[in-house]
Specification:
Largest sheet: 7 strands, parallel
Number of domains: 1
CATH architecture: 3-Layer(aba) Sandwich
Oligomer: single chain
Number of helices: 9
Structural class: alpha/beta
CATH class: Alpha Beta
Distance between the termini: 32 Å
Shape: globular
Strand content: 5-15%
Helix content: 40-55%
Length: 250
């Protein structure tokens, strides 16, 4: 129970990696606010899984690309769990679709970049109202931030790279306040994300070429996030930790 007594907000916390993170943090004693935007049923499933295991959590709908929604999200978490927030996991994000640059317009740019970076910026700014010394922020970036991403994912990759740079900037800015900021950079993880946006042939190629000969599991990402959110990583800040089975070294 390395997070006993802590309060955590997980954006996009209702499914896949976000669900695994929410469940893992709760299993280690954190009280978790599970943010979702569209799929309330998935959020309720995650909430039920936590409660069945004896954990404590709430769900909260918010579009984390909108400042008013973000403000309401953190106010709800603080009200539910005693006024302070100790952990923020900026997990909300997504590729949305694959488009080459000649197919992209301004609306596409704004949609993808807002989802993958503005959300992180808004949530980090807002959580500081409730977070003090000992707080931890963990940003879910991507291997795409390292290598530019796959075909048609340039704006997504740029958003994740911005998140990685923001991690370093905030580590320097917030460190004197006793707040640590780190990121994780997942590669191919077995999730709905890749079921939807990655061709089976690409996944099979990874199985043949990756040093570990497999995709990662959402629970493995959650374990790393939990470590970075806990006092066990108390002297770690400003890092971007790769979790990709050896597919890319940085």
């Amino acid at each position: 129970m390395i997070l006993k007594g802590k309060v955590a907000v997980v954006t996009g916390g209702s499914r896949d990696i976000g669900r695994a993170i929410s469940i893992k943090l709760a299993s280690e004693g954190a009280k978790v606010c599970i943010n979702y935007c569209h799929d309330k049923a998935k959020a309720e499933e995650t909430l039920e899984a936590i409660r069945q295991a004896g954990g404590e959590a709430i769900i909260c709908k918010a579009d984390v690309t909108r400042a008013d929604d973000v403000k309401a999200l953190f106010a709800a978490a603080a009200e539910a769990f005693g006024g302070s927030i100790d952990i923020l996991v900026n997990n909300a994000g997504g590729i949305v679709g694959r488009k080459r640059i000649e197919e992209q317009d301004e609306n596409w740019y704004n949609t993808v970049l807002d989802l993958n970076f503005k959300s992180c910026w808004l949530c980090t700014r807002e959580v500081l109202t409730y977070m003090g010394k000992g707080g931890a922020i963990v940003n879910i970036s991507s291997q795409a931030a390292r290598d530019g991403g796959g075909p048609g994912s340039s704006i997504y990759a740029c958003g994740k790279a911005a998140m990685l740079c923001h991690t370093r900037a905030m580590a320097k800015e917030l460190g004197p306040q006793g707040i640590r900021v780190n990121a994780v950079c997942p590669g191919m993880i077995d999730t709905y994300f890749h079921d939807t946006f990655t061709a089976p042939a690409s996944r099979e190629a990874l199985h043949r070429s990756a040093p570990l000969r497999r995709e990662g599991e959402a629970s493995e990402v959650a374990g790393l996030v939990c470590f970075l959110a806990s006092g066990e990583s108390g002297y770690v800040t400003g890092t971007g930790v790769d979790i990709n089975g050896g597919c890319l070294f940085s």
